[in-house]
Amino acid sequence: MTEQEQGREHARWSGPRGLPEVWRRQIARAGLRDAGHGFDPLGASREGLARGVMAARFFYERYFRVLSQGHAHLPATGPAILASNHGGMLPFDAMMIALDVLRHSSPPRFVRPILDHFVPALPLVNTFFTRAGAIGGSRGNVRYALEGGEMLLIFPEGTRGIGKLFWERYRLQEWRVGHVELAIRYGAPIVPVAVIGAEEQWPQIARLPAPRALGFPYVPIPALPLPLPVRYHIYYGEPIAVQRRFQPSEADDLGVVEAAAAEVKEAVAGLVARGLAEREGIFD
Amino acid sequence: MSGARRVMVSGATTPGGAALVRALLEEPSIELVLALGLEEAGSAAVATALPGAERRLVYEQVDLRRPRALRRLLFGRARALEISAVVHSALHRSARDGGRGVHDLNVESMREFLHLLERHPTISRLVVRSYAEVYRLVQDRPSIVDEEHPLDLRPEAPQWVRDRVEADLTACSAMGQGRLKVIVLRCAECLAPGSGSQLYDYLQSRVCMRPLGFDPMMNLLSIEDQCAAIVSALRYGGQGIFNIPGADTLPLSRLIARFGRVEVPVPAPLLGPLYRLRSATIGADFRYDLNYWRFHFSGVLDGARARERLGYSPQHPLRFPR
Question: CB count, 10 Å around CB of B178?
Answer without folding.
Answer: 12
